[in-house]
Known about the structure:
The complex is a heterotrimer of chains A (285), B (230) and C (240).
Chain A: E1 2-3, H1 13-24, E2 40-44, E3 52-58, E4 61-72, E5 83-90, H2 105-119, E6 130-132, E7 136-148, H3 153-167, E8 169-175, E9 181-191, E10 198-206, E11 209-212, H4 216-221, E12 224-231, E13 236-242, H5 249-284
Parallel strand pairs in A: 5-7
Antiparallel strand pairs in A: 2-3, 3-4, 4-7, 6-7, 8-9, 10-11, 10-12, 12-13
Chain B: E1 6-8, E2 24-27, E3 30-33, E4 37-41, E5 47-51, E6 63-71, E7 75-79, E8 86-89, H1 90-94, E9 115-122, E10 130-132, E11 139-140, E12 145-148, H2 154-158, H3 163-172, E13 175-178, E14 183-187, H4 191-206, H5 213-228
Parallel strand pairs in B: 8-10
Antiparallel strand pairs in B: 1-4, 2-3, 4-5, 6-7, 6-9, 7-8, 9-10, 9-11, 12-14, 13-14
Helix pairs in contact in B: 3-5, 4-5
Chain C: E1 26-30, E2 38-44, E3 47-58, E4 70-77, H1 92-105, E5 117-127, H2 132-146, E6 156-163, E7 166-169, H3 173-178, E8 181-188, E9 193-203, H4 205-233, H5 235-238
Helix pairs in contact in C: 1-2, 2-4
Amino acid sequence: MSTTPFRVQIIPKIKKESYLNLYRKGQRADERDFYSPRKISIQTNVLEKANGSSLVKLGNTQVMAGIKIEPGEPFFDTPDQGVLQVHAELVPLASPQFEPGPPDENSIELARVIDRSLRDPKAVDLNSLVIRPGDKVWMIWLDLYILDYDGNLFDASMLAAMAALLTAKMPEYEELETGEIKISKNISNNPIKINKKVVTVTTAKVENYILVDPNLDEEIISDTKSVIAFDEQGNIVGAQKTGMGSLSQEEIDNIINVSSSAAQVYFKLLNDALKSEVKEEKGDK
Amino acid sequence: MSTTRRVLVPGEKIEGVNISDFYVYDYKNEKRVSIIGVIDLKQEGQISYSPLNGVYLPKEGDIIIGLVTSHGVANWFLDINSPYQAILSVQDFFGSKQSNQLPEDPFKYLQIGEYVKAKIAAFDRIRNPLLTVQDKGLGKIVEGIVVSVHPTRIPRIIGKKGSMIEMLKSTTSCEFFVAVNGMIHIKCQNEQLENIASNAVKMIELQSHITGLTEKVKKFIEEERKVRGV
Amino acid sequence: MTRPQRFIDDEGKRLDGRKPDEIRPVKMQVGVLSNADGSALVEYGLTKVLAAVYGPKESQKSISLPDRASLRVRYHMAPFSTEERKNPAPSRREVELSKVLRESLEPIVITDYFPRTSIDIFIEVLQSDGGTRTVGATAASLALADAGIPMKALVAGVAIGKVDNVLIVDLNEVEDMYGDADMPIVAAPDLGQITLYQLNGVLSKEEFHNAIDMAMKVINKLVDIEKETLRNSYKEAGEE
């Protein structure tokens, strides 16, 4: 049962009015324009024991992604494909709004949108994850851990997911005579085969204004949010309207245009973060 | 001849001079209805909009009949056929301003499952409807029966200029009290008549759209009285 | 079920003979349940969804809002509704769809008339052949109107897909499972507002725009059918 949210943080009316006055002048409270995301930092390989990991900071929002790769059985109808499972947890320490407990509708929606945006464009090459067709494949467990909530969990989570996937390493294993797969404690140098990079762009609609990468206040005062996933070629590989308001067709067209440009900013930041990671690796050797 | 009686559905435009109604809202330059109902163009270009469905929303001053469903320390709680439970205080029921004038066990005097005729003394967005019985004719219902119909059928049971309700009273020889919240109190000389009266009311509820209903119900009551010998 | 070789034949017809912009046969009924305050049964082809509304009634204190009614929406699939029996326990998909369906109805229900109450909307998929959430939104809209809950406008939904590089309207299950895109859309044509949109799959920006165009045309027709259905069920009340 989904219920109208009843424990929403209150934004004082005066504050909301002052935000709207800024928007009328084409400005935002943190001195951004409508189309720019906040300051982003992407770190990879932050957890030594995980196969892949990342920590993304988008303004004050912080998301950690952890990847564990384990052998498992394929799904019945896809015997020649590995398995990707995406879960998200709105960890209670991230916000006074988050309560401990099983995943609620917000964390389920977050995980499923990220999952679809990776699955539909076939970003992860599941065919390359087969050990023995129909019997043993690699399971990629991608867990998104929200550590600090200041708006826009989708974009931060997608960047974290992508950064972790692109820098993850497959486990070292040996196949015993019994057919059993024995994973060693060492991690190999083999990456997961990634076919495409994907980012999501979240926009909030506040009255007639469309704001890219809303912070928490902007999310609270918004009518509704849109999350649009893009690949590097500019195709739309996922979309989700999230929140209680509504939009006209024209507003959606505008959102697609604005998001498409912002996606390029995200891709550049992602690629830059990966280049510096590669430099570090080379330096180690 | 009224050719302008039409069913409107949510989102449809309604035109007319000065329509202000709970179920009509403004959209850009138009007025639109928010609930399914019948628009009726009476004489003199007056438009009425009657909802065909929807709950009874109490108004201060309404006389209603409520069913006691529970009680607290100093109040009874009543179901008045509305989204909100109504409250009747013990003090109001006994008409006393001082608590030492109240009986020891007030809840013995009005029990769960009993009906009360009361007036809505106060109702707003912040609190549940408050009832009072301190007015002529109000209080616990001790004789007769109470029949419940959908609140939107009440106008039909009263009829144009009271024609239906007057017919019911005279044809059944019973006393009727029709409350706006869909509850009708019927008091007759015997149980058989009460049964006939109750069936007549239910018949009106189910066939409220038929023409010539007043005649039809009148015939029904007369037949029943003959058959049952009352 | 296996993946078809082709989805559109040489004459431009789909697997079930429809044209790309054609919806399946649509059936709508209201007032089908005696206990619920409002109810509706809606079918697009083989997809059958039953919706029921209870309320407004006083809400539990924990969820109560001081200035408006709460909506509680449950989207659920009956165990016998799918090809393989579905476990009745709520799945992650049902949790997500309950949320997006509630968010598709919030903009059109006039909730400030009934503070501190809740309006319960139950959407049960009796048979699933693609587009269940969009049929569910249409059924919920009818059930709300049938219950006399004040609404700004009616909504209807349809899912747009892409197969063999052609955009198609109102996907059935096969087209949904094996096609390249599934885009459910719910809108209120009388307000010119879209209250739900999602994309599963890959579309170019142009295809995305065209898909919404196609959806709005169909949704207009579906809302007209809703209005007819409501008028007919109360027809006698209008006659005199």
